[in-house]
C-alpha cells in the first residue's frame, strides 16, 4: 500500500520545540557564546591606527618626501664634487649649510662612498701630493688634510706613507733651496729669519730644516768661495 506524503506528515507531525527545555536553552546559550558582541575582537582601534598612519607625516607620503630630499641632496653633492674634489667630511659640511637633514646626508654620503664616487683615501693621497708641491712639511700637511675634512686615521696614514717615502725630507730641502735663491745677496741673518719663518708656516720639522739649511748654505758658500 502506497502512502502519500500528506498522509505521512498527517500521521507523523513534526515535533514542537519547547523553548523552555534544557536542550534548547543550552543551544541558545551556546549560540550566544559564539556571537556575543562582547566576545568579538574590536578592530575599530586598528582601523583608527591605520588611518592615523596613512595621514601621518611619517607615513608613505613622509617616505616620499624623504626620498625626494635624498634625491635633491644627492644632486647637490654631485654638483659640489663636479666643481672640485672633496673629502666626505668637507662634503658633509657643505651639505649641512644647505639645510639637508643629517640622516639624509649620511645616506647620500654612504651611497657615494659605496659607489666609489667618494674616496677619502685617494683624496688624502692627492692632497698630500698637493701639499708637497707647495713645499710643505709633515705637520703642515697633516693639518691641511684635517682642515679639508679628512678623517684623522686616514690623514695620519697618508702622512705616514709620505714620510716613509722620504717625501718630507725632499720637501724640506726644496724649501731651503727656494728661500736661498730668493734671498741671495741679502744679509745672512735676514736670510735665515725668512727661511725659518717660511718653515714655520709650511709646518716643517725643525730638525729637517736645520740639516737642509746646513747642507744648502754650506754648499752655497763653497760655490762662492
TrEMBL record:
Signal sequence residues: none
Domain RecX first three-helical: 75-112
One Pfam family recorded for the sequence: RecX_HTH2
Superkingdom of the organism of origin: Bacteria
GO CC annotation: cytoplasm
RecX second three-helical domain boundaries: 119-158
Annotated GO biological process: regulation of DNA repair
Protein's cellular compartments: Cytoplasm
InterPro entries noted in UniProt: RecX_HTH_1st, RecX_HTH_2nd, Regulatory_RecX, WH-like_DNA-bd_sf
Keywords: Cytoplasm
Family from the record: Belongs to the RecX family.
Record's function text: Modulates RecA activity.
Name under which the protein is recorded: Regulatory protein RecX
Organism: Alloscardovia theropitheci
